[in-house]
Amino acid sequence: MKKIIVVFIIPLVLISCGKSDLDRTEVIKLIAVKDSVNLEGVNLAKVDLSKLNLRGANLSYADLSGAILWGADLWGADLRGTDFRGADLSGAILYKANLKGADLSGADLTGAYLREANLTDANLEGADLVLAYLYKADLTDANLEGADTTGVKRFKK
Question: How many C-beta atoms surround the C-beta of residue 61 within 10 A?
């Protein structure tokens, strides 16, 4: 009796985009084929990424200034040093996200879920944190000057 052995080769998909500019459609295509999405340093300024599942994505040092991320799922995402100046992150899920050194100045974080997020050294100057959930978030050395913290839940500086 002959045995037939079938071998399947499944490539590990690691998408790395370097410093290029992407739009919403291209990001959706990358998410659809990913095992791990690496968008480190990518220019996504003013791009509409609302309601996208970016869970665990690497967006460190990316330019997301003015981007629309309301309702986006960024659970556990690497957002170190990311530029979120003036971005709309209202209602975004940032549970356990690493925002160390991120620039969130003037960003709208209304109702954002930032439980256990690392906001060490983050710039939140003038940010709108109304009704944000910050339980166990690390705000060590974060700049909160002029930030609106009205109704913040479990807020501890």
Answer: 18
CA atoms within 13 A on the CB side of 41: 6
Domain count, the chain: 1
CA distance 80 to 113: 17
The residues near 21 (Cβ < 8 Å, ≥ 6 apart) are: 42, 43, 44
Asked if residue 76 is part of any domain, the answer here is yes
Residue 90 C-alpha from the chain's centroid: 12
Domain contains 9: no
pLDDT, tens digit (0-9, with 9 covering 90-100), for 53-106? 999 999 999 999 999 999 999 999 999 999 999 999 999 999 999 999 999 999
User: What is the pTM (predicted TM-score) of this model?
Assistant: 0.85
**Side chain identity, residue 13:** V
Tokens 């291209």 sit on residue: 26
Instruction: Report how far apart the first and last C-alpha atoms of the chain are (Å, whole number).
Output: 72
